[in-house]
Every structure is written in C-alpha cells, then in structure tokens.
C-alpha cells in the first residue's frame, strides 16, 4: 500500500516553481536518446515551402500571419511523427482507422489535404522531401532524409547519416560511391548499408511503400551498431507530440490503464493519477449523503508534500518534486489560490481531475473548472509530470491564458525545457503579449514565417534577423510592431 501523506503533518518549505529540477539518477544507464534535440528541419517542395531550413531550439516560438505556412510546418512534423510510429507511406499521408471500428477505433490523423495537396503546387511535381537533423549528447549529429512520391505513395529516396558513425552513411538509396539503379515502377527500392568489410557496401531491397528506417531492424540492419543509429531516429520522431488541448475533453472521466496524454487531452485524469501513484499519495474515503457509493479521492496538497524525506526512493522523490512544481506553477498562473491537485474515483474505475482551491476543503472537479484553468493544468502536467523524451508541438500556445499571465506561461515552458529534462517545445502563436515577454535566450529561438511572392514559397526568418528590427524597437515594443503589421512586412519578401 502507498505510504500515507498527511497534509497537516508535513510542513516542508514550499519550493518556488522556478526551482524545479528534474531528477536524474547518477546510477541510471546512459541512453542514446538522453539529450537528443531536434535542431533543424529542411522542407523541399512540401506544401507552401520551396527549399527552406527551419532551426529549432529547446523552446521555439513561431509567428506568422494567416496563410504564410505555420500550419504547413506543423503538418511536416506530424508526418515525421507518423514515420516514428511505424506507419506506411499511405497511412502517414491519408491517416488510418484501426480495424476495430465503432467508438473504440483508433483514428490516426493524416496530413491536411491528403496526397494531392502535399507537394508544392508551384513546383509541378508529385515529390516532396524532408530532412531532419538531430543533435545527440552521445551520438553527435544525425541526419535523416526522406523523399516521397505522393502519386504512388512510395519512397524515392531515403538516407541516414551520423557524424560519429564509421561510414559515410548508415544506409542510403542514393550513395555517392557505387550508386544504385532504381526501377521506377518496382514495388521495391534498393539501399546500400554500411559494413566494416573492405570494398563497396552491399545493397538490399526494401518495400518502397514503407519507410526504410522502420524496416532497418534485425538482420536487415546487418549489425547492432547500424540498428542503434536507426533506433535513435525512430525514437526521436515518435517523441513528437502534437498538443491541442480541448477543455471538453479534459473534463471527461479517464479509464485507469491509459496513461498517455492524448493530443486533445484524452486520459488527462488518468495521467494525473499515475503521477500521484508514483508519489505514493494515499486515497481518502468519505461517505457522501445521497450517494450510493463512497467518495474516493487521491489528492496532493502543496504544503503536504514532504520533499526532504530521506526514506523515499528516487522515483517517489522525483514524482513528489514534479507534483510540487505543478502545484506551484498553477498557483502562479491562476488568480485562485490553488492548494493542490487530485483525482476523484467513479465506481466504473475511472477518474476525473480535480483541484483544491482555498478556502474550500472539498475538491472542485473538472466539470466546474474554467477552460483556461484546465488547459494550464493539463499543460503543466504534460511538461513536468513525466521524465521522458518528448517534443511538444503546440498550435497557438497562448489559448486560454490571460495576457497578464503570458510571461508566467513562458517561464513555465522555459523551465520545463531546460537541459536534462528531456522536453522540447515547438509552438505557434499570434499573441503580441508573448513577444513583449520574451527573454533574451528565447528571442534567439523565435521565428517569423513570411511569404516570398517572387518565388511563391514560405520563408523563415529569425526574429533577431528581421531587417531594421533594432531601429524599429527604438520607438515601439515588439508587441506593438506585431499588431501594427511591421513584423510581418519585415518577414515577407
């Protein structure tokens, strides 16, 4: 049974939200995905992009008016996620519903517009290419390239390179040395793969309707070393996590057993319960007049989390530190006095998210919480609740946040994306208040999308590289420059 945690018995110092540091065990094995960062995405003939390179930092903010390509960039990231999930070329583009059917069917979202609208219209081609660069603490720079013919749902080029790999490539369909002759109408595509043997690298046939990186396992990878490089990329692409939180979803009961937060907030309460369980937070059971079943609550109040208990194991200590950080951030982000978070049980073995607000002793469940409070709570749990590698992709991150608190929102995300925490965030926004709240470090990773009229392509410019920015900031704030349209005009060509 979990250890009981009394809210009144323990009076540990309340840590400030900004003091939170993710726990990393010194005895934990070093994994290749530790410290992986998605650093660059090149898009060639993908939707509105001609040939554009997009740099990413730990926390990247993307501005741009309607129609300049922000959603198209997010579509490219969604396509890469589909590769990491092991989906076929067709399913990655068009989406897929599981064979189960009915309300329990798993629907995998495709790319907006489907195959017809993926290649850039002005290029008059059915082929697009994406190239993603990762930077890994142990593995160094890794580059993965894939080109797809959307008219046939097939791979026409795929390559994996790594700076610390012994060969010029891990595998390649178009090697510079000993090039391969590909048959355009064949259902297979040939690729050379690295071996340490003298002479040219051998080749092998793969299905052109599946991504080679997902077929490059076991004997097809030839060596454990080769497979390890491919696995780093697969894991990193699978870590891409679109997040578009819907309050109506966050208000729902969650069945226990589903502990992954969905794109729209599915399983939010169950994810919170999992964190409470790892922190060894006990249940309380009370009889409720007029109810046929008792009221069962698992709750953590911020003044009842003993973070100095040396008898706790590392996992429990880490979970409590995360709970304390989440409670502290919610207390700062919302005008109400948040005392703690909880989940309430239903007889169906489902749970619903709840908050303790002073001066109430009874928790307020998600059904009565505001949209903004729910979004902020779910975002805090997503960013701080798990010690695993994730790159969150968030459209209009400011949704539901009062302009007076956007600076706190930025601080929350910057805290969560510090080195060692395994989190990265790529977010779009329209909010002038966010621009006015940028820290110096975040300015470096703020991008503005514009439109190149002559070449009919979206273009990407770093905020600090906008022509005339220094002079313009002498008379107006960044937020005012955005509202007046100056930022967009400077980004357009």
Automatic annotation (TrEMBL):
Residues 43-92 form the Rad50/SbcC-type AAA domain. Pfam families: AAA_21, AAA_23. InterPro entries: ATPase_AAA_core (IPR003959), P-loop_NTPase (IPR027417), Rad50/SbcC_AAA (IPR038729). Keywords: DNA damage, SOS response. GO terms for biological process: DNA synthesis involved in DNA repair; double-strand break repair; SOS response. Residues 320-436 form the ATPase AAA-type core domain. One of its GO terms (molecular function) is ATP hydrolysis activity. It comes from the Bacteria. This is Uncharacterized protein.
